[in-house]
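Deliverable D4.2, example record:
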Amino acid sequence: MSAMSGVAEAIAELHPADVADKLNARRIQAQTKVLARMASAAFMLAALAVVLMSFPRAKQLGPACWRRRVLPPSPAP
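Output generated by the structure prediction step:
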């Protein structure tokens, strides 16, 4: 997480907002902030998924929900 924020800060420093072309610099800074926040959220979601998979009930619940909602019912023999 700190690596992502470090990259975002480095990009912000490469494009300071106190230059003649403020619009371009602010656009790049805004895009960098959004991408850094999205990457951070994705990382947290993946970490939460890994933590939940350490519980046996969560391991059983995942495939059960997948079968119930995605796959069509199997025909009776």
